[in-house]
């Protein structure tokens, strides 16, 4: 059997395997085989029992981290989303949740050294060729774990890790509004669907839930069980990818992006823990579809993109959220309200930010069949 050094890390509301670049074999095909086998894909049962994955998009991820070759940058990192069913690794976008685990992992793996205290680091994400700024507390040379920040969907509390995305517009497209319009009409199955096509940290297609006969408070499993709606959402997502210039044909759209978001105005909603979240807890209700599954919270980059979308006059997110006087938006997710911020100056999006927590769950080696 083959053993490869790795760490298992929770970042935000995701978990994944983290590797130092030097631990992996050379070549993209060899690395993709490692990632799929380590996570337990392909798996026709969708459970990844023969690997470290958890059978959902938020639990089937990898990060590869290295010392940076870029001036003024501490670390380079590459995110891979491994499809549970096929084992194909998609590198089309970044992961905001797992990005919070990059510095804690690098400190533990010896890729980075830092003095104790509040420290700031600069990262380069190779998926999007964008800078990510990370600030956190260091104790005894390691990222602090204990703290008072509670994340919806994560039991307990942890030390805050701030992620900042300077100049997040156009992570994979021509700009914040790839088409130049706050709302576009997509032709799908002979009907027109108004959407907002926004790219800040992550290309995203935003559609009002009511356009599909939904109210935005649905539980993830209920959306996933509605096969006609899921199929229509996928067609709209792929049409949005073409309109954003991400691909030439709908069938060529990447799995990992753009994400598609069902949005609605504030309303009471039952959360996954059985509690009722009042309408006053959020500014915008969202249900995010990621890799064909409804996310139980919200992708970190998706949250920041929605914060930016809410700052665009006339966009679907801004219209549903209503007038606001804050950079911060509270997103109502199936796990509770998640806050993200987008700062606009003189009509230009300058940066987005998000608070996460992270914890290294295990370090050692993963066993791979030869």
From TrEMBL:
Under InterPro entries, the record lists: PrpF-like
Q: Name one GO molecular function term.
A: isomerase activity
Any single Pfam family the record assigns to this protein: PrpF
Superkingdom, taxonomy of origin: Bacteria
Question: Which keywords label this protein?
Answer: Aminotransferase, Isomerase, Transferase
| Keyword Transferase among UniProt keywords | yes
Gene3D superfamilies named among the record's database cross-references: Diaminopimelate Epimerase, Chain A, domain 1
Q: Which family does it belong to?
A: Belongs to the PrpF family.
Recorded protein name is Acetylornithine aminotransferase
Q: Which organism is it from?
A: Glutamicibacter arilaitensis
């Amino acid at each position: 059997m083959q053993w490869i050094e790795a760490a298992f890390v929770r970042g935000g509301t995701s978990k994944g395997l983290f590797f130092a670049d030097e631990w992996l074999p050379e070549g993209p095909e060899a690395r993709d085989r490692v990632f799929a086998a380590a996570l337990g894909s392909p798996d026709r049962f969708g459970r990844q029992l023969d690997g470290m994955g958890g059978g959902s998009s938020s639990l089937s991820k990898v990060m590869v981290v290295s010392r940076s070759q870029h001036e003024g940058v501490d670390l380079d990192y590459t995110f891979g989303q491994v499809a549970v069913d096929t084992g194909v690794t998609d590198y089309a976008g970044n992961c905001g949740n797992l990005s919070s685990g990059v510095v804690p992992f690098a400190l533990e793996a010896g890729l980075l050294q830092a003095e104790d205290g509040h420290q700031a680091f600069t990262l380069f994400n190779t998926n999007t060729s964008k800078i990510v700024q990370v600030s956190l507390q260091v104790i005894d040379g390691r990222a602090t774990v204990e703290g008072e920040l509670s994340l919806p969907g994560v039991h307990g509390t942890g030390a805050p890790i701030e992620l900042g995305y300077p100049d997040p517009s156009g992570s994979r497209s021509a700009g914040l509004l790839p088409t130049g319009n706050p709302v576009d009409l997509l032709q799908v199955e002979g009907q027109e669907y108004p959407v907002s096509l926004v790219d800040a940290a992550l290309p995203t297609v935003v559609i009002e839930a009511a356009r599909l006969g939904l109210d935005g408070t649905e539980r993830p499993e209920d959306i996933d069980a509605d096969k006609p709606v899921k199929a229509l959402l996928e067609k709209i997502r792929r049409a949005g990818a073409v309109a954003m210039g991400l691909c030439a044909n709908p069938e060529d759209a990447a799995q990992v992006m753009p994400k598609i978001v069902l949005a609605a105005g504030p309303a009471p909603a039952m959360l996954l823990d059985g509690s009722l979240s009042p309408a006053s807890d959020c500014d915008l209700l969202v249900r995010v579809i990621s890799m064909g599954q409804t996310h139980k919270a919200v992708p970190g980059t998706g949250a920041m993109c929605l914060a930016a979308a809410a700052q665009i006059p006339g966009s679907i997110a801004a219209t549903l959220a209503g007038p606001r006087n804050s950079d911060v938006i509270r997103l109502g997710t199936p796990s509770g309200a998640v806050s993200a911020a987008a700062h606009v100056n003189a009509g230009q999006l300058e940066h987005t930010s998000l608070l996460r927590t992270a914890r290294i769950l295990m370090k050692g080696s993963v066993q791979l069949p030869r």
